[in-house]
Specification:
With 101 residues, this protein is mainly α. It contains five helices and no strands. The protein has a domain at 37-96: DnaJ domain (Helix Hairpins, Orthogonal Bundle).
């Protein structure tokens, strides 16, 4: 019984670490908005400097511009490049209707 409680607690903590929300918060979340990007992508929009209704071309252009500023060869870091790539992937996946892993 103790092992089951331990596994349940680890699953709840893992959910919080991965998604940033507790499982019960995720169940109470409202439906995804039909226009624009989901609220979780607001940071990605801000990072790339695009608006919530940005299209594929605008996202890709903003990503390229950001990479020219944060690339390690220009004084940036690999972490910033990865963050820019993740933001681009998130927004493009939302446009195409796919879910990220």
């Amino acid at each position: 019984m103790g092992r089951l409680i331990f596994l349940a607690a680890m699953a709840v903590i893992g959910c919080k670490l991965i998604t940033g929300r507790w499982p019960w918060e995720m169940m109470a979340m409202p439906a995804r908005p039909s226009s624009g990007h989901a609220p979780g992508s607001a940071r990605a929009c801000a990072l790339l400097g695009v608006g919530p209704g940005a299209g594929r071309d605008a996202i890709i252009d903003a990503h390229k511009a950001l990479l020219t500023r944060v690339h390690p060869d220009r004084g940036g870091s690999a972490a910033l490049v990865h963050e820019a790539n993740d933001a681009r992937d998130l927004l493009l996946a939302e446009i195409s209707g796919q879910r990220l892993r």
